[in-house]
């Protein structure tokens, strides 16, 4: 095989790697993606304002969850009823509950947010949630106060 792509002439030009060589080269380079549970910080203003990684979008019939090994958001199941998630649902990074999962958060906001993204939120309430074990569920809203300086509480929502 010739070392250049100019029909056998050796004018000293470097050859352009073929597509399959570029693909193999990129596959051989190891890259590690950030893990949303372990690598994302809780946030510099925690516990007042904290980061939340969204797993399930508001209005969705698809239940997603974090794959603990890869850090990817995976489909857990499809809800086959008229039930949808009323708000965005996610977790607080670098937390751990009795069920060995991160702390769950229901984020009250008007718009759906894509699974896998994170946002800053403020806790406005707490309620027990029964899954396989009983653990707390934070009820929070997106923290606009960090931008606008306006404080919002549970009374402004109900």
From TrEMBL:
Any single Gene Ontology cellular-component annotation: cytoplasm
Family annotation (Pfam families): Pyrophosphatase (PF00719)
Enzyme Commission number(s): 3.6.1.1
Top-level taxon of the source organism: Eukaryota
Record keyword Hydrolase present: yes
An MF annotation (GO) of this entry: magnesium ion binding
PROSITE patterns: PPASE
UniProt keywords, alphabetically: Hydrolase, Magnesium, Metal-binding
Catalytic activity: diphosphate + H2O = 2 phosphate + H(+)
Matching InterPro entries: Pyrophosphatase, Pyrophosphatase_sf
Gene Ontology BP, a term: phosphate-containing compound metabolic process
SUPFAM superfamilies: Inorganic pyrophosphatase (SSF50324)
Cofactor(s) the record lists: Mg(2+)
Matching PANTHER family: INORGANIC PYROPHOSPHATASE
Family from the record: Belongs to the PPase family.
Protein name (record): inorganic diphosphatase
